[in-house]
Amino acid sequence: MARYSFEIGLTQGGMINLESLATPVIPPAFDFADYSDEIELPNGRVRGMGFPRATWRWGNLEQAERTQLRTFCAGKSAEVYIKTLVNDKTYKTFRAVMVWPAGEDPTCDILLDFELAFRHLVEIV
Prior knowledge:
It is a single chain. The chain has one domain (about 5-125). Helix content is about 5%, strand content about 50%. The protein has one helix and nine strands; from the N terminus they run E-E-E-E-E-E-H-E-E-E. Strands 2-1-7-8-9-6-3 form a seven-stranded antiparallel β-sheet. It has a two-stranded antiparallel ribbon with strand order 4-5. The protein is globular.
């Protein structure tokens, strides 16, 4: 049984828990931001701008786990569906653009500090 509810899929109905993939992937640490940017207003306040974004991070990830995640992102980026923790510690489902990290060495057995970015999140209710 999965300990966490981080999920990913190419379709909303095809999402699967990371721990239940053919090659299970350990749950990531996460960051979530309600806005992708912010601007300072003349009165000193700050306004959030843009779509939410999320980041999944692993301290180390084996090649087989990265290969499994790569099936969801054949190029530099791809549209996916994810279920991730948000700042209030609840899980929400989003359509997102998954961005594969630059400079990743596919021949490395264990990669340290692996990070996937999810941009342009649109919540699915």
